[in-house]
Amino acid sequence: METVVSQNILMQEFPASRPSLRLAVVTETWPPEVNGVALTLSRLVQGQCERNHQVQLVRPRQTVSERGADNAGFEEVLMRGMPIPRYPQLKLGLPGKKALVAAWALQRPDLVHIATEGPLGWSALQAARQLRLPVTSDFRTNFHSYSQHYGLGWLKKPIVAYLRKFHNLTQCTMVPTRALCAELISSGFENTRVVARGVDTQMFRPDLRNAALRASWGADEDSLVALVVGRLAPEKNLDVAIQAFDAMRAKHPSVKLVFVGDGPAREALRQRCPQATFVGQRRQDELALFYASADLCLFPSLTETFGNVTLEALSSGLPVLAFDTAAASEWLVHHHSGWLAPVGDAQAYVACARELAAHPERIAMARAPARGRVVQLDWQQIAAQVEAVFMEVMARHAAHVPRVRPLPAF
Fold this sequence. Notes:
Layout lengths: L6 H7 L8 E5 L9 H15 L3 E7 L14 E5 L1 E4 L2 E7 L3 H10 L4 E4 L4 H12 L4 E4 L4 H4 L9 H13 L3 E4 L2 H9 L5 E3 L16 H6 L7 E6 L8 H14 L3 E6 L5 H7 L4 E2 L5 H10 L2 E4 L8 H8 L4 E4 L2 H6 L6 E4 L4 H13 L1 H6 L1 H8 L4 H22 L10
Parallel strand pairs: 1-2, 1-6, 2-3, 6-7, 7-8, 8-9, 10-11, 10-13, 11-12, 13-14, 14-15
Antiparallel strand pairs: 4-5
Helix pairs in contact: 2-17, 3-4, 9-14, 12-16
């Protein structure tokens, strides 16, 4: 378990740099798109701006008429994009190496950070290498694990090979958990560094519990509300959540199941479990109310690189039942702030849910310890860690690469 230290100590250990750095951050997803990558990356950008760094955000244009934000606190460079199959609300960045080389040759970033490995990310990597700029990257999505859930299991090895090539061309790849870092190293990934995720403990907090919201789900204080949060898609293993709900109802008839999120599996899940409540995608402030007003978070996914839902639920005082992987493996304490089932053992997961429904007092007792596990894990800490990685990579790069002067502006 990584040691969580106070904000003051971290600020002393990782003081904001002077003068500020010019950082180019490249991503193919950004709010208002709702997914873990977009939300956590926006926190990273905000954190670096607060630490006196100048950020240039490079991302696909989300609508045809969209213009870069004027008051975001950072510069935006909008590139061409196209809808992602099955997720038309999300965009995939199109190649743009020539445009990036031209922009970065005129105004060189001190470092390029690439958050996604799509065509835009690959173009940014090639442009940065051509200009001999230091590059870091994030490993944020298990695309190779997703392939088997879409009948494309045969693509797993080529996808891993591409991701390995991509990340090994950067000076450092930031990974959110030690377990995933070890897995990547065993697959030939180099220069990996564990940097955890943070959580907004002021937004996600237990005192937002709302009786009226529970009543809208058909629940009172004697009911048990099981909450599932995230994309409704095959790779999220949501049939196990429904199995757990069915087992809980056998022991506690007033159990309610609420799905927060949307995706291609929504209609199939509705047909599979007509008793469940589906509320669709929600803003972060609305989501905070849902977490605080539920009793148990069911998180059965086996394809997460991290799983922000885990930290958000814990911060809200909501115990989590998850498999022993990703964020749950590092931040849950079994039988204390939540419950862990062996990875891939659906029967054990369902049995644990059944036992908890038979003894709901155990769930209630875990609320305070859940909050306590993450109350100090704020985003300022993560911003300081990321800044330290940037500074280290730049120092290593400068030791081996002669300084290249920018071209004069005309």
